[in-house]
Specification:
This protein has about 260 residues and is α/β, with parallel strands linked by helices. Helix content is about 35%, strand content about 25%. A six-stranded mixed beta sheet has the order 6-7-8-3-9-10, sandwiched between helices. The chain has a four-stranded antiparallel beta sheet with strand order 2-1-4-5, covered by helices on one side. About 45% of the residues are buried.
């Protein structure tokens, strides 16, 4: 894990976009996945969403940039009401970068090209400018020396860092991470988390779905525990992870932090 560039806390100034969710509901048929979520993320804040599988965390994240259309409620991102019927969705999405569990890189393009294609097609940057921005962001995630490598020549952790560099190359004001380390070999998780730590230090607004409790405890300004489509508990990382008040939060953390625990009831 020695090829990640460590930025100082004041290494870069990042424009920040706040997020506000009000009464957010999402159903798939008769299955209501989100049940009236209210959540605010301040500009420059890092919020980690934790909770069991099926609690609605990833669906919430996808509703922020309308990859999933909410059934009810409003979503504000920066100066946009994303759920307004007349919103310019493409313009709003330019403020938002998203990193998924799977890397979704184009296999026929090398790392640099993966980071330039959206710049030239969406932002209409010249190829030279796009190359410059892409190279800078690959350097930023510690992979500048591998810009000419194709995805199948990179490890899973390296591919995920290319995916982060690709998102950053669009100059987002908000980054969404949907369990970005869940598909990685344990040896490569640290490199990805290191990049995310640096983004947090730079002031990037981040909404992160994660099962990495150590990362959440260290980096998050706030932790939100979700279960059954609702917010059960939220507060500082120290409060929610170290001293939760809700029984459901306590039980979840007991299972996560003590993997040897087996419920025989």
């Amino acid at each position: 894990m020695n090829d990640v560039v460590n930025s100082s806390p004041k290494a870069a100034h990042v424009q920040a976009a706040g997020v506000s969710l009000t009464g957010l509901r999402k159903s798939y048929g008769s299955n209501e996945v989100l049940k009236g979520i209210n959540l605010d993320v301040a500009p420059g804040e890092v919020v980690c969403l934790i909770g069991p599988s099926g609690s609605g965390k990833s669906t919430l994240l996808r509703c922020v940039n309308l990859l999933e259309q909410p059934n009810e409620g409003t979503v504000h991102v920066g100066g946009f009401e994303a759920t307004h019927p007349d919103v310019d969705i493409d313009r709003m999405r330019r403020k938002v970068g998203m990193v998924f569990q799977q890397f979704n890189l184009f296999p026929h393009l090398n790392a640099l090209q993966n980071c330039t294609v959206a710049q030239t097609k969406v932002l209409k940057r010249s190829q030279a400018e796009a190359d410059k921005v892409a190279q800078a962001n690959l350097d930023r995630v510690g992979l500048g020396h591998l810009a000419d490598r194709y995805p199948d020549q990179l490890s899973g952790g390296q591919q995920q860092r290319v995916a982060i560099a690709r998102a950053l190359s669009m100059d987002p004001e908000l980054m969404l991470f949907d369990e970005p380390t869940s598909a990685l070999d344990p040896e490569t998780v640290g490199d990805v988390l290191s990049v995310m730590r640096n983004l947090a230090k730079e002031g990037m607004t981040m909404l992160v779905v994660t099962h990495e409790m150590g990362f959440a405890r260290e980096v998050a300004d706030r932790v939100v525990f979700m279960d059954g489509g609702v917010v059960v508990e939220e507060g500082s990382a120290e409060q929610v992870i170290s001293a939760p008040t809700q029984d459901r939060t306590k039980e979840f953390l007991r299972r996560v932090l003590d993997p040897t625990h087996i419920d025989l009831s």
